[in-house]
Amino acid sequence: MNAIDQFRRSFAIAKKDMLIFYLKGPVVIMGLLFPFFLFLAFVIGRNLGGETLFAGLMGMTVFFTSTAVGPTIIPWECRGRTFERLITAPVSLATVLLGDFQASFYFGFGVSLAVSIPTMLYLGIRPGFALFLGATLLALACFSAMTILMSSYPPTDVPADVMMLSSLVKFSLLFISGIFVPLDKLPTYGRALSFVSPLTYYVDAIRHSLGGGYLPVWLDLVMLTLFAVAFFLTGSWVHTKVLEKRFT
Q1: Contact, 77 vs 83, CB < 8 A?
Q2: Of 10, 27, 42, 169, which one has the fewest beta carbons inside 10 Å?
Q3: pTM
């Protein structure tokens, strides 16, 4: 079976994931409602410029929508006994994970597109198109790959367990990423801590597309790429190691 066939099968898995999982309550709450109200809390009472608002909104939208359901797909599949059927089909584990990755990517891309265009028109700002699009696609790939790693351990069939752990990681990364306090205004230790979060590099790249930015833009794009590759390869490796435990 060649790579094209595997990709077609992974795309079919992505379509299945979007049809089954993306209308569930936790996805709507964590992927749409929560970033909306978090953004309101960020904006209300603060005299922020359009560029700061746009970078913050895009950072939260891309981050939360692309990680809304990915970590819980496999636990849900294991609970419903459909993961066993899927893994015995003529597809590799990597193909299944690639399908879950694509589902997160497409969902995040659709919502981000629906949010970004009206916001640009309302605020009257025009980010550099190529940099904005390129950084957003890389960030979507990075955060979608992060869900593969989040879903890998523990090998449980209880979605709430994975949801709790992934929420802890996501909120920790959100608050150190420079969305709420720009990197140049953070203390030295806070700035050093922010470099651990891939969201830092996406928000900084968006600020570059608006004429700002703190880090070199090439570093933002390279770090997003490295994080994406590291998340997917590490997640795939852990999934392979714990696969048998999912059926015991």
Answers
A1: yes
A2: 169
A3: 0.90
